[in-house]
């Protein structure tokens, strides 16, 4: 393909915050206008985010993409023009615009990006090129499973389903959620403000080629020298997810699918009878009848005679019901009434004529497809989702939302073709449920399972999953990579079908695989078992002694995991993090290790992902020493690799960062309703001659506005080993409705080779227990949280 080059004219008139129309949109900006009428604007949207707009002559600025949540009238806090107005300093970022429209943004070593000002057009596509000096790794781009470092890859931006995939399947280079963005370990990110069908070539230069008709803007996102800082800055642009409902962090059972009310109730009762805590059950296609009834969106009263009673029955047990919905309305089943009523009203995607409904064929029939860009469609779906939610539905599952079948001849009500709108479909569909909750259920948090979308999908309270993965060791293998790249892209709750979905009839089940997959699921954002068959843990009674404690362990970690959710809501940090997430050295590279990850800042998870393996190699990230949680007297140096670490089937290798505080809930629960914020077990793993801190967040775990309304409490734990005594202090700030002002604390301090001479609490002698073999000191006390408390070990 030969591209014609559009070059910005060399003679310019330079303005700095003078053009009235530009000033209104961008109070902090540099604008260059050419004799040919082209305009290049570099605008500071915040201290960390810079937007570059290149408008060829004869074009007008439109709404463009939907990547940003930053208001364009929010000025940068420190834009300082200098020289002749062609340069500026934006909070330490050097910006310049040359007379030919070339834009240079320099955030420091390895963070320089140059837009040459050229826009190339051919075959209804436009090309944008950026020169870079980054030398580190590139991550992100949405849901990518083929590898961690994406540098050098050509990435297709067009959502696609890959049924029954494995880690070696080349299809998983392009998955269900594609985002035109990347994060560099050098400390910055680039976001193309686009959702059309496109390619992003991550070489040097970076090339972005899109089918979008209007000019595409891009954002430079500046971090410090860590992925943590970049992710914080990136999600300030693309949006952050609200705090989840607490039950989303419990165990959820699901399969394809529960066909009757009796079957669903019996499964929950059976799990509970075996001692499994349960917080949710997901109903696949059969809640409305058969697969061919897709789009009916009504309970089938033969299979589900009293769904309201069922949801009340399960709700009384603390179990939430999640119901499926899809983009399609089929004519070959009982959804034909909806089809015949709504097709004449234009609620479905139109064909190329723009008048008749686009014919859509999927694996179970044919019919129409909801046009979620049409306000009338959105209104109809809102009313139907509301009625079903009022009946008791606790959450929504949006399946097939890539969309899985999206004929390229289709036209949408917003004037976009299928290829132009395809990636954005999932975002706009998700926003229907999200807006419904904001409007009709303002006091309720949302769980919405979606598997299609693009940049910013997370701002609709979405819990995505890696779709129809093969039930095989090959299917398990890429799941860590998928969670990491998705999480860095903003999708902090990316999960997977625990146990593997797509079952090989020749090998319908593999109990060893199920155990290992469940071990990974224990430290995944959502613990949801799902498969075509044998999905639930009760089908593996021979391994109940391993499986049952694993599911219960999920609940034990609720205080820690909920604090990770708070970090996601306030910083955009994913729950699953790469080993170099907190490193400030771009050269810390673990790209070849995709079977380990950080769970938050303090826990290293190293699941076994190979059939028959009873040991594995483990690499410990630099910057910290690590303690074996299964053998706390065993320590490992950061930056080292241990070969053949023993990991029999009943063992998930877990390690805690030295200096960390781990807060757990050490009591049995049937569901998250049994969580008691007034009882905390805290394990402290001190590092000698250091001061370290830990943090715990709590609120009412119900309100969607806890963060924005500042209705929560931060508990800070500080450990100091620099003196003769070992001191641990607790301090609480903030409150909320229903907060416990007294807490029962059980504090265990590890690594104490000798019994202390005494233990004091706020200077008074306290009872304690010393375990010589475990080298631990345990002290329990009642803490009045409005008063700081100090525990001292006099050694």
What does this structure look like?
This protein is α+β, with helices and mostly antiparallel strands and 795 residues long. Strands 1, 6, 7, 8, 9, 10, 11, 13, 16 and 17 form a 10-stranded antiparallel sheet that branches. 53% of the residues are buried. Mean pLDDT is 93; it is low at 1-24. α6 packs across α7 and α10 (511-522) packs parallel to α11. Helices cover 18% and strands 29% of the residues.
Which percent bin holds the helix content?
Answer: 10-25%
Instruction: Specify the oligomeric state.
Output: single chain
H/I helix tally: 12
How large, in whole angstroms, is the Cα Rg? 27 Å
For the record, give the distance between the C-alpha atoms at the N and C termini, rounded to a whole number: 75 Å
Label the structural class. Answer: alpha+beta
What is the number of beta strands? Answer: 46
Tell me, rounded to a whole number, the average pLDDT. 93
Largest sheet entry: 10 strands, antiparallel
Net shape = globular
Q: List segments where confidence is low: pLDDT < 50 over at least 5 consecutive residues.
A: 1-24
Strand portion, in percent? Answer: 25-35%
What's the short story on this structure?
By secondary structure, the chain is of the alpha+beta class. The protein is 18% helix and 29% strand. The protein contains 12 helices and 46 strands.
Write the layout of secondary structure elements.
Blueprint: E1 4-6, E2 12-15, H1 20-25, E3 29-34, E4 39-44, E5 49-55, E6 79-82, E7 87-90, E8 93-97, E9 103-106, E10 112-122, E11 125-132, E12 138-142, E13 154-157, E14 178-184, E15 188-192, E16 198-202, E17 206-210, E18 218-222, H2 227-238, E19 251-254, H3 261-273, E20 280-283, H4 307-316, E21 320-325, E22 328-330, H5 336-342, E23 360-362, E24 365-369, H6 375-391, E25 395-398, H7 418-440, E26 448-450, H8 473-476, H9 479-488, H10 511-522, E27 527-529, H11 544-556, H12 558-571, E28 576-577, E29 597-599, E30 603-605, E31 615-619, E32 626-628, E33 635-636, E34 641-646, E35 654-657, E36 661-664, E37 679-684, E38 691-698, E39 713-720, E40 725-733, E41 742-749, E42 758-761, E43 764-765, E44 769-771, E45 776-784, E46 789-794
Parallel strand pairs: 19-20, 19-27, 20-21, 21-25, 25-26, 37-41
Antiparallel strand pairs: 1-10, 2-3, 3-4, 4-5, 5-18, 6-7, 7-8, 8-9, 9-10, 10-11, 11-17, 12-14, 13-16, 14-15, 15-18, 16-17, 22-24, 23-24, 28-29, 29-30, 30-35, 31-34, 32-33, 32-35, 36-37, 38-39, 39-40, 40-46, 41-45, 42-43, 42-46, 44-45
């Amino acid at each position: 393909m030969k591209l014609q080059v559009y070059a910005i004219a060399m003679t310019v008139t330079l303005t700095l915050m003078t053009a009235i129309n530009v000033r209104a949109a961008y109070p902090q900006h540099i604008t260059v206008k050419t004799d040919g009428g082209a305009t290049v604007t570099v605008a500071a949207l915040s201290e960390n985010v810079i937007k570059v707009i290149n408008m060829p002559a004869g074009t007008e600025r439109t709404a463009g993409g939907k990547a940003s949540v930053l208001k364009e009238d929010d000025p940068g806090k420190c834009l300082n023009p200098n020289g002749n107005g062609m340069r500026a300093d934006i909070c330490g970022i050097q910006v310049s615009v040359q007379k030919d429209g070339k834009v240079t943004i320099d955030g420091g070593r390895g963070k320089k990006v140059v837009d040459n000002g050229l826009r190339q057009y051919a075959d209804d596509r436009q090309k944008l090129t950026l020169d870079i000096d980054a030398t580190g790794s590139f991550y992100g781009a949405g849901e990518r499973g083929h590898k961690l470092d994406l540098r050098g890859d050509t990435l297709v931006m067009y959502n696609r389903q890959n049924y029954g995939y494995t880690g070696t399947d080349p299809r998983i280079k392009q998955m269900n959620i594609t985002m035109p963005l990347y994060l560099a370990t050098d400390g910055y990110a680039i976001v193309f403000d686009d959702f059309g069908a496109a390619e992003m070539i991550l070489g040097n230069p970076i090339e972005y080629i899109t089918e979008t008709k209007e000019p595409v803007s891009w954002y430079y996102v500046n971090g410090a020298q860590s992925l943590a800082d970049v992710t914080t800055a990136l999600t300030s642009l693309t949006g952050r997810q609200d705090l989840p409902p607490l039950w989303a962090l419990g165990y959820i059972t699901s399969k394809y699918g529960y066909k009757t009310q009796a079957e669903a109730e019996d499964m929950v009762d059976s799990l509970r009878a075996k001692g499994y805590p349960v917080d949710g059950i997901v109903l696949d296609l059969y809640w409305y009848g058969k697969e061919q009834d897709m789009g009916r969106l009504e309970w089938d009263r033969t299979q589900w005679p009293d769904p309201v009673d069922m949801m009340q029955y399960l709700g009384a047990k603390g179990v939430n019901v999640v119901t499926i919905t899809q983009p399609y309305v089929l004519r070959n089943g009982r959804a034909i009434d909806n089809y015949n009523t709504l097709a004449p009203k234009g609620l479905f995607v139109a064909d190329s004529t723009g008048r008749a409904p686009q014919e859509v064929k999927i694996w179970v029939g044919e019919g129409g497809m909801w046009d979620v860009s049409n306000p009338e469609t959105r209104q109809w779906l809102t009313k139907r989702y509301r009625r079903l939610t009022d009946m008791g539905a606790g959450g929504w599952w949006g399946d097939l939302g890539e969309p899985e079948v999206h004929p390229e001849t289709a036209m949408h009500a917003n004037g976009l073709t299928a290829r132009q709108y395809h990636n954005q479909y999932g975002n706009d569909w998700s926003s229907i449920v999200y807006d419904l909750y904001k409007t009709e259920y303002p006091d309720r948090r949302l769980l919405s399972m979606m598997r299609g979308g693009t940049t910013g999908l997370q701002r609709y309270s979405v819990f995505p999953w890696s779709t129809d993965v093969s039930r095989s060791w090959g299917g398990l293998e890429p799941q860590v990579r998928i969670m990491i790249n998705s999480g860095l892209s903003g999708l902090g709750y990316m999960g997977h079908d625990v146990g593997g979905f797509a079952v090989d009839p020749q090998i319908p089940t593999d109990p060893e695989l199920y155990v290992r997959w469940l071990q990974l699921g224990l430290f995944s954002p959502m613990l949801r078992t799902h498969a075509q068959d044998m999905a639930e843990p009760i089908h593996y009674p021979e391994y109940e002694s391993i499986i049952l404690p694993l599911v219960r362990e999920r609940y034990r970690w609720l205080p820690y995991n909920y604090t990770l959710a708070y970090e996601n809501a306030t910083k955009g940090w994913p729950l699953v993090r790469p080993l170099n997430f907190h490193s400030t050295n771009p050269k810390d590279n673990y790209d070849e290790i995709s079977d380990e990850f950080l769970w938050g800042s303090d826990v290293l998870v190293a699941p076994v992902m190979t059939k028959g393996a009873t040991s594995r190699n483990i690499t410990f990230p630099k910057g910290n020493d690590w303690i074996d949680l299964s053998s706390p007297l065993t320590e490992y140096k950061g930056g080292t690799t241990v070969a053949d670490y023993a990991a029999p089937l009943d063992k998930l290798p877990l390690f805690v960062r030295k200096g960390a505080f781990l807060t757990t809930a050490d009591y049995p629960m049937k569901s998250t309703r049994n969580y008691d914020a007034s009882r905390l077990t805290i394990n402290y793993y001190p590092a000698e001659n250091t001061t370290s801190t830990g943090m715990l967040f709590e609120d009412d775990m119900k309100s969607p506005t806890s963060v924005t309304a500042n209705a929560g409490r931060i508990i800070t734990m500080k450990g100091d080993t620099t003196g003769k005594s070992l001191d641990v202090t607790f301090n609480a700030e903030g409150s909320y409705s229903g907060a416990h002002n007294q807490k029962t604390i059980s504090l265990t301090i590890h690594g104490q080779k000798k019994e202390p001479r005494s233990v004091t609490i706020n200077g008074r002698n306290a009872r304690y227990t010393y375990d010589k073999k475990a080298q631990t000191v345990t002290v329990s006390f009642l803490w009045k949280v409005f008063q700081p408390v100090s525990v001292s070990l006099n050694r």
